[in-house]
Specification:
The protein has helices at residues 2-20, 26-43, 50-70, 75-94, 105-109, 117-146, 148-153, 158-180, 185-188, 191-199, 203-228, 232-249. The chain is mostly helical and 254 residues long. The longest helix is centred in the middle third of the chain and has 30 residues, at 117-146. The radius of gyration is 18 Å and the shape is globular.
Length: 254
């Protein structure tokens, strides 16, 4: 429950800018890079490969930001290049010398019971930092997401803001991967923002609706998974899908 109460606000906040910046598959690409980091850490004999995965995901996010600033390609194209490369490298490393991929199957589904108090504390600190960053830079983030050329003309350091935002996503996705699962973690960074976007009339409503929807869906998904014995990540995703469906039905009332 503590993990959900920390993770869901993080995903709710970050999802608003993910949707506005049209980076729906970025978290999926980061999940693949995190998987590669876990494979590398395991190959090196590390007891906890999480930090190796975090480091690689941050490098991945910074490299993506740099490449995106140097090319005119659309974000989804650049994300596709990085995502396919990361997943191929992860599979290549994890199957070296004929090793079986099955030992990494747990990363695909996730297990909320694998959460540790230390990682909850780290994510709580990250949540605090993200909230401070949001309060101080939300207007600039919104401008860079919608009108990047105008943001540059106003003296905003777009590349720096993008790098900080992408690194925040990288750390959150990587630390949450073993609890939520690679197969559904992308939905947690898309559905809250997409659902809130259906009915929000301004940025304030957009942010609060995404936060509220993420937290309520997180708690509801946790309760459902507890009583029916299903995957927590999948249960939360289905609750978020219901949230999106409800807001979609009311979208014409904005």
């Amino acid at each position: 429950l503590l993990a959900i109460l920390v993770i869901s606000p993080l995903f709710g906040l970050l999802s608003t800018m993910v949707v506005e910046k049209r980076m729906a598959f970025f978290s999926d690409a980061l999940g693949h890079s995190a998987f590669t980091g876990v494979a590398i850490g395991t190959l090196c004999g590390l007891v906890d490969a999480t930090w190796c995965a975090v480091a690689l995901a941050v490098v991945f996010a910074l490299l993506f930001t740099w490449v995106q600033s140097k090319t005119r390609m659309a974000s989804d194209t650049v994300i596709g290049v990085f995502s396919s490369t990361a997943v191929a490298l992860g599979i290549f490393i994890s199957t070296l010398d004929g090793h079986s991929f099955t030992k990494f199957n747990s990363l695909l589904i996730g297990d909320i019971l694998s959460v540790s108090p230390a990682k909850i504390g780290i994510l709580a600190l990250i949540l605090l930092l993200v909230i401070v960053f949001w309060v101080l830079r939300i207007n600039r983030l919104t401008l860079t997401a919608t009108y990047p050329v105008l943001a540059v003309s106003r003296g905003i350091r777009v590349n720096l803001l993008d790098a900080l935002f992408n690194c925040a996503i990288a750390v959150v996705v990587t630390l949450s991967l073993t609890w939520v699962g690679l197969l559904v973690i992308n939905s947690l960074l898309v559905l809250p923002g997409a659902a809130a976007r259906n009915v929000a009339k301004n940025m304030r409503q957009y942010t609060w609706l995404a936060l509220l929807g993420a937290v309520v869906s997180g708690i509801a998904g946790l309760m459902i998974s507890f009583y029916v014995g299903s995957s927590t990540g999948a249960s939360i995703t289905l609750c978020l899908a219901v949230f999106f469906a409800v807001t979609f039905c009311f979208r014409h009332r904005k």
